[in-house]
């Protein structure tokens, strides 16, 4: 890989300091740091070692172009061997890096073709009735839990069990059994974080082992009696040679955990934002046609994924700078969505604006396969929750997930329902 030079100008040095704070500090509000990067070094050359080095993009136009550029590919095994030498010894990365998220071009398209029908419009239209009934039932149970002004953690009470129940329906597994491992799935997602302590790495690998154990018997059962669910589709793909066994487990764990973990993060953040902006909450509550546009605006304002990584497979020009082949490229999705060159008054929540072309679900070939599912969950749950509890209010400071650099959201959201 071409060696990077240290930032030379004062603006570049200040931007590198902001980037370090993003990576190594617990930032509940990273948006001022994003603004600093956009202004001082929108294409930052980072001299940090291994995966943390390379080029950091913070403007919407550059991030959007990078995500659509076929010369920028997910980290391959060869790249990982150079940049993260211990990845093969860890349960989570050994499986996660064999999933569709890290496959490229024809291999990526082949796996996407296999799973896409489960996330298509017709399948989700069938699922919407179940989703609505589940949300109504869980909101009713929530009312009993929050009686007499008790403080309720909305994450534990609804923003976790609701998307978990939906993804269990898609996979054909028992949500009551899956609930025991729900937080393991949330921990497993942290293998995507750019900075991980040894303690976090151990927890992530333990979570991977727990979830592999949870799915061992369902996989065996589908091999005996396949069905129409997503788990059966993945097992058939493995049995027919489309996936090897490691790819089967990697895609199974990725699709299952991401299928509810991202929604936990987004729903929790969206509720927090609406409770902090009661006029916007009133629009979502009172206007039956507002939900779709509101969801996109909330995704723009604080998406569940704030950063994505790529490798330059050949020299490429990004934001007017030449990026050498083999360089890591970090795309700051959270920054792109608040770029004033992309949207007016980016730090203002306006659920009527619609927020076209946000990058909450990335873009290009690797656009999130579950984007429609996540949108639908929010469109169903948020208006229902606000109508049932019009005086709901925050009862304390939310607990944000950690490390929270790549994956944003809340782990605890205390409210009084009234």
From TrEMBL:
Listed InterPro entries: Cyt_P450 (IPR001128), Cyt_P450_B (IPR002397), Cyt_P450_sf (IPR036396)
A Pfam match: p450
Positions of transmembrane segments: none
Top-level taxon of the source organism: Bacteria
Record family assignment: Belongs to the cytochrome P450 family.
Protein name: Cytochrome P450
């Amino acid at each position: 890989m071409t060696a990077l030079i240290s930032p030379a100008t004062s603006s570049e040095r200040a931007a590198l300091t902001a980037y370090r704070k993003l990576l190594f500090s617990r930032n509940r509000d990273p948006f001022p740091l994003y603004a600093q990067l956009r202004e001082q070094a929108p294409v930052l050359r980072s001299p940090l070692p291994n995966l943390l080095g390379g080029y950091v993009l913070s403007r919407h136009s550059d991030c959007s172009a990078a995500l659509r550029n076929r010369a920028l590919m997910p980290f391959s095994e060869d790249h990982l061997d150079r940049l993260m030498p211990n990845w093969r010894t860890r349960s989570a990365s050994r499986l996660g890096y064999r999933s569709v998220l890290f496959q490229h071009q024809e291999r990526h398209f082949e796996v996407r073709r296999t799973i896409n029908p489960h996330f298509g419009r017709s399948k989700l239209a069938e699922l919407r009735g179940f989703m609505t009934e589940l949300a109504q039932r869980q909101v009713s149970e929530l009312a009993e839990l929050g009686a007499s002004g008790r403080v309720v953690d909305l994450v534990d009470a609804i923003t976790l069990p609701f998307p978990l129940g939906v993804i269990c329906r898609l996979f054909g597994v028992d949500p009551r059994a899956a609930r025991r491992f729900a937080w393991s799935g949330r921990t497993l997602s942290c293998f995507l974080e750019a900075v991980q302590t040894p303690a976090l790495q151990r927890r992530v690998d333990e979570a991977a082992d727990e979830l592999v154990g949870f799915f061992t018997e369902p996989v065996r059962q589908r091999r005996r009696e396949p069905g129409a669910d997503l788990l059966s589709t993945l097992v058939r793909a493995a049995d027919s040679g489309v996936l090897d066994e490691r790819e089967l487990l990697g895609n199974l764990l990725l699709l299952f955990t991401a299928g509810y973990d991202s929604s936990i993060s987004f729903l929790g953040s969206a509720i927090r934002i609406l409770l902090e902006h009661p006029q916007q909450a009133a629009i979502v509550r009172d206007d039956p046609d507002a939900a779709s546009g509101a969801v996109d605006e909330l995704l723009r304002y604080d998406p569940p994924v704030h950063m994505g990584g790529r490798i330059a497979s050949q020299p490429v020009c990004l934001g007017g700078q030449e990026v050498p082949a083999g360089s890591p490229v970090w795309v700051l999705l959270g920054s792109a969505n608040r770029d004033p060159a992309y949207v007016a008054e980016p730090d203002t929540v306006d659920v009527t604006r619609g927020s076209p072309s946000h990058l909450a679900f990335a873009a290009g070939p690797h656009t999130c396969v579950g984007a429609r599912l996540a949108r639908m969950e929010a469109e169903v749950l948020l208006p229902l929750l606000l109508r049932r509890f019009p005086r709901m209010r925050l009862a304390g400071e939310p607990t944000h997930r950690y490390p929270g650099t790549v994956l944003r959201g809340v782990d605890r959201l205390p409210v009084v329902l009234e």
